Amino acid sequence: MPQKKSKDSNRLKFIDLFAGIGGFRLALEMFGEECVFSSDFNKNSQIVYRDNFKETPKGDITKIKAKEIPPHDVLCAGFPCQPFSVSGNQKGFDDLNNGNLFLNIERIAKHHKPKVIFLENVGHLERHNDGNTLETIKRNLSNMGYNFFYEVLNSSDYGVPQHRKRIYMVAFRKDLGVSSFKFPEPTMKEVKLKDFLEPNSKAKNQIIDETLPKAVKIEGGWKVVNKKTGKTLRKFLWKDKKGRRVNAKKKAEDVVKKGMLHPIDIHDRENVQSRAIKTIRVGTIGKGGQGERIYSVNGHSATLTASTGGVASKTQAYLVKGKVRKLTPLECKRLMGFPDNFKMDVIDGTAYTLLGNSVVIPVLKLIYREIKQSIYKNGKN
Q1: Where does CATH 3.90.120.10 sit in the chain?
Q2: Which among 336, 290, 269 is positioned nearest to 281, based on CA atoms?
Q3: How far apart (Å, rounded) are the C-alpha atoms in residues 19 and 36?
Q4: Is CATH 3.90.120.10 the right assignment for the domain spanning 199-209+262-327?
Q5: Label partner for 14 (CA 20 to 30 A): which of 85, 208, 216, 262?
Q6: How far apart are CA 1 and CA 341, in angstroms?
Q7: Which of 119, 36, 131 minimizes the C-alpha distance to 80?
């Protein structure tokens, strides 16, 4: 999608690896940089990327030869975080599916020797395997001829009302003479989640009601509905996916016996109107586990995620003008720094996953500004 570009005449070329929906690209294009290659194997990411940037990212990076990638000055990569995430499997480099994907960054960097390598991952990477994972990344890049710097930053400290700690890694080719690098200072700008929200009338599908369930017989099984509205809550068929017999009636009745679904408890009403540059938890749904926590909109949102469960999965719940609800996909876009006109023609569940896996664009922009200044300050570009 067209971006307003800076007047910087020192235009650099970059590649967008593990591109997702294009957060890195949006950030760097704001500085007038040119994307010469993108890659992501996820089909939904490719669709959204294509709709916004008019090109489809190449697929599996492990099958793309380094020589097939154009020369570039900056290598960007938000490589898969699940192997290092607290909410993921934490297998690190031992994850055969995702953990070794970092080796492809090294492989491409060895071939092209870009000026800068700019990476993002979950904050827990700093401590993963007692710090040995990060030390391995640092050592490998140093051996390749790069000076390595990193910092764990929280987007809440940079004018974005979302608690999201991420590790940002920047490596400069040693011949550039960048022997020190300072990440941007926190702005501590006072912003509230409620300033990023749509009206509740636009979020009808996200509203969470306390629900009195009722079991109803249907063709092929039973279902549980909201006794008041008739909305279907659960379905149980006589046979499962493997063709095995299931007692659908008993399963439906068991749900009803448990009583009210999604019981809501606002236990800290005094905090509802409090203001802070952090999350303000004011209640729970059910037992208060993942996806069952309620926050005030006068503070910041919890971390948007790609995979957590619960009735308010992937966004957590918020008390918005008397209604408890999840965030909408548009609200999530705003919390990641994407413009409202960024196209996401996918179902809501997919949108939440793609945004939960993305990067916070305002933070990337602040870091990249420091990167450019460091490059040209030494006059060795």
Answers
A1: 199-209+262-327
A2: 269
A3: 12
A4: yes
A5: 85
A6: 9
A7: 119
- Whole-model pTM over 0.90: no
Model confidence at 99, pLDDT cuts 50, 70, 90, reads: very low
Name beta bridge partners: 120: 168
Show the DSSP H helices in 11-86 as ranges: 23-29, 43-53
Catalytic residues, which ones?
81
Q: Which of 29, 28, 32, 35 is nearest to 13 (CA)?
A: 35
What stretch(es) of the chain map to CATH 3.40.50.150?
13-189+343-377
Return the residue matching tokens 């007038």: 32
The terminus-to-terminus CA distance of the chain in angstroms comes to: 28
Q: Determine the angle formed by the axes of helices 43-53 and 348-356, rounding to 10 degrees.
A: 90
- Residue 334's CB is within 10 A of a number of other CB atoms, namely 22
Q: Please enumerate, as own/partner, the contacts of 177-180 that have beta carbons within 8 Å and a separation of 24 or more.
A: 177/378, 177/380, 178/147, 178/374, 178/375, 178/378, 179/147, 180/149
> What 3-state class would DSSP assign to 75?
strand
- In the chain, the amino acid numbered 93 is F
Residue 95 clears pLDDT 70, i.e. is over it: no
173-206 tens-digit pLDDT? 999 999 999 999 999 999 999 999 999 999 999 9
98 in Cβ contact with 130 (< 8 Å): no
The beta-carbon contacts of 153-158 under 8 Å, at least 24 apart in sequence, are: 153/183, 153/186, 153/363, 155/360, 155/362, 155/363, 156/277, 156/278, 156/300, 157/186, 157/187, 157/188, 157/277, 158/184, 158/186, 158/187, 158/189, 158/360, 158/362, 158/363, 158/366
CATH class of 13-189+343-377: alpha beta
